[in-house]
Amino acid sequence: NTVLNFLDHNVFDYPALLDYLKQHLSLSGKALFQPLRLTLTGDLHGPELAKIFMMMGKEQVKLRFEYVKNL
């Protein structure tokens, strides 16, 4: 199961995505949030991720994960 599958088959919800990532990657704290922030924004610092996530929308979030997957 991949993040892209998760986004395709679940409600677009930031807390649900975090739970999925925590469970499947066994990460938390900085080890989870820094790579997630880099994936979504390309930067290590910035506004609250939950707000960015919702402003980007499902398709843009999927594009960012797809881009990082193909690096």
List the helices and strands and how they pair.
Blueprint: H1 3-9, H2 14-25, H3 30-41, H4 49-69
Verbal overview:
The chain contains four helices and no strands. The chain is mainly α.
Structural class: mainly alpha
User: How would you state the average pLDDT, rounded?
Assistant: 95
Instruction: Give the fraction of residues assigned to helices.
Output: over 70%
Distance between the termini: 19 Å
Largest sheet features: none
Radius of gyration, in angstroms, nearest whole number = 11 Å
Residue stretches low in confidence (pLDDT < 50, at least 5 long) are none
Instruction: Sketch the topology as an H/E string, one letter per element.
Output: HHHH
General shape: globular
Number of DSSP helices? 4
Number of strands: 0
Beta fraction of the residues?
under 5%
Report a brief summary of the structure:
The protein has 71 residues and is mainly alpha-helical. It has helices spanning 3-9, 14-25, 30-41, 49-69.
